[in-house]
Amino acid sequence: MGYVQGQSRDQGSLFPVSLDELIGPEHVCRVIAAFVARLDLKALGFARAHSKATGRPPYDPADLLMLYLYGYLNRVRSSRLLERECQRNIELMWLLHRLTPDHKTIAEFRRCNAQPLRRAGAEFVRFCAEAGLIRGEWVAVDGTKFQAVASGKAILDEVQRAELQAKLEQRIAQYLQELEAADQQQGEAELDAQALRQALARLQLQQAELAKVDSDKQRYVSTEPEAVVLKGKGPGYNVQTAVDAEHALIVAHEVNAQAGDNGCLQRMGEAAQQTLGGTELKLVADAGYANGEQAQALEDQGVRVHVPVKRAVNNQGEGDLFDQGRFTYDAQADAYVCPADKLLQRKQLHRAGKVVIYAAQPGDCGACAMKARCTQAPRRTLSRHLYEEALQRIHQRATPQAMRLRRCTVEHPFAALKFHIFEKPRFLMRGLTGAGAEIALATLAYNVKRALAVLGGQQMLQKLAM
Question: How is 157-210 classified by DSSP, letter by letter?
Fold first, then answer.
């Protein structure tokens, strides 16, 4: 029995005469082209959105934006791989009108348009809101860690950082001496002087970046100073997203160099509210975002926060002593009332920890019959957060239903970003700006893919054409 036979390479065929016949009527390339056609790239701030009258004409940023969107949708992020795809991929031939930009042009577009890419993503979120895909009622916030370009071998401690600083100073002094000697000579020495100046500029730039590093930072990434050292992951960044609960579309995102999520609640809530047009939101997040001050600020702006608050466990006296819940706070007197009806009055304020310490009178505790069940110290003390009321409110709102909604809303987009778009959670570009550009493209690609799955190609193309 023979094998399945193909056609002869010499045989003529009725192959479609135009690229348009090869792209289906609801193909994702048509969706990408329709969306980019809606954008005012010049107003969004894209570089070279308006070509000059003289010189070689540049590539249209619309074409390069479509190229990157297609690439991120198909897990192709490298500029060299995108260059290769332009030469052999029929879908990209249709999308770019057979243009084949080189990898340097492709990489330069992404490097120079970090903020315009964020604005383009915000435009798609507005389109989704107009199309009814975003309700703007419940928004879930969460963060995850992505690896940086830098290797773990580039992490330096305080001693290694000081050694690097001394080495840089020594090499700069050496280059300055060689440059002074080269300047006094003529002929071929002029070429050497130019090379010395370039090397000296690189060393001085590295020295300036090292000087910017916070002195309290215990570990420093020499090849990528903006990266933070993540536990178990090496150099990386913290990626934050705010996801609308209606169809799990990402409405806001951020890349920062913070190891934890505690300081991100207010920024993400305000970004989501601004993107959705100032609507009253219900913001839900996990316990890592419990921040009373930021929760109070969001509530003042009309955002209802739902975050569980972790409390310290009472482990004194093997956990048998009175918990803080047995004490009643009197707001008018700014004091606590103990189970024996004695007052614990305000003693001191710790501004760094944002807590107020309340203490009972030693005489009241010494004569109290319940002292053995209350404290082992001479008197009982309690601490109260400056934004205790806000913390209590957000904790009460963090019901099991709200936390289940958070998990169902925000976990899926992160899995899609990490493994369906990035393929593996590691950036290709260095620094916060480069990482931000990549996340802007990735979230835009995710939202396009998600909206297409909900609406379907035909309906989405109709709404894009409006």
Answer: -HHHHHHHHHHHHHHHHHHHHHHHHHHTS-TTHHHHHHHHHHHHHHHHHHHHHH
Q: Is the dihedral of CA 433, 434, 438, 444 positive or negative?
A: positive
Q: What mean pLDDT do residues 397-404 have? A: 95
**Dist. CA 255–CA 247, nearest whole Å:** 23
Which one-letter amino acid corresponds to residue 96?
Answer: L
Question: Architecture of 135-149+228-308+398-445 per CATH?
Answer: 2-Layer Sandwich (3.30)
Contact 42, 21 (CB under 8 A): no
For the chain, give the percent of residues with pLDDT over 90. Answer: 55
CB 148 within 8 A of CB 257: no
Q: Residue 118: what pLDDT?
A: 96
Query: Which ranges constitute the DSSP H helices of 250-380?
Result: 265-275, 292-300, 362-366
Burial of 201 (0-12, 13-18, 19+ CB in 10 A): exposed
The size of the chain, in residues, is: 466
Render pLDDT for 425-435 as a digit per residue (tens, 0 to 9): 999 999 999 99
- In the chain the first and final C-alpha atoms are separated, in Å, by 57
What is the per-residue pLDDT for 147? 94
Q: Which of 333, 328, 285 is nearest to 310 (CA)?
A: 285
Calculate the alpha carbon distances from 363 to 133, 134, 309, 351, 382 in Å. Answer: 65, 61, 34, 28, 17
Q: How far apart are CA 346 and CA 222, in angstroms?
A: 47
Question: For residue 225, what pLDDT is reported?
Answer: 84
Reference 386, options 358, 361, 414; nearest CA is 358
